[in-house]
Amino acid sequence: MTSTALMNELGNHVTQEIVNKVKGVYLFKITGGKDWTVDLKNGSGSVQEGAHGKPDCTVTIADQDFVNLIMGKANGQQLFMGGKLKISGNMAMAMKLEVLKQMAPKEGVAASAAGGAAYASDVIFPEIDKRIKEDPSLLKKINGVYRFKITNGGDSKTWTVDVKNAPGGAKEGEEGKADCTVTVSDEDYVNLITGKANGQQLFMGGKLKISGNMAMAMKLSQLSAPNASL
Hints:
There is one protein chain. The chain is of the alpha+beta class. Helices cover 36% and strands 25% of the residues. The protein has 12 helices and 10 strands. The protein has helices at 3-11, 16-22, 63-70, 76-81, 92-95, 98-101, 106-114, 124-134, 137-142, 186-193, 199-204, 215-218, and strands at 24-31, 35-40, 46-49, 57-62, 85-87, 144-152, 155-163, 169-172, 180-185, 208-210. The strands form 2 sheets. It has a 5-stranded mixed β-sheet with strand order 3-2-1-4-5. The N and C termini lie close together (9 Å).
């Protein structure tokens, strides 16, 4: 299936419910294909060939990668980190969180949870701090400051992960101005970092909250068309 055929199919599945959830206009620049405007903001929504109006989010991706992404054969975050999926604007900050998953030791997290630590995620941030300082190239790759608000029952703890200003690192509390603020429960964060939970699923389920317009990029999963119709 080509991106053109898939876009036409997606147009048949735009519903008012999706428009109400997403409230955004996407411009897809398909290399090896065409430009498409997916309007999930105005009226009952639409999918049109070409650039129409002002997009909230512009996505550049190859024809086959787009098809694989929508069909569930490719991971959006992996495509993004590999430079195959380009998203304009600061919203890209949210898509770089995948890097952090590669920086935390699964053994340490499991041991902390088994030991009954108040916050199982406490073991993650010191390790992230260590690895950021050991690999200065991360500052250029990510170039952002994250604020993590970790909830645990009725309590919460805040961490700042600076992957922007040398030497970088992770500190408990609020340090400076954050480019991206993430609110997630202690358990969900541990599951996310250890690969037991999917970031997009947590986001769509309201369990992972990201501040700012960058959230637009996380709503791309709404475009997935039902497999039965494909």
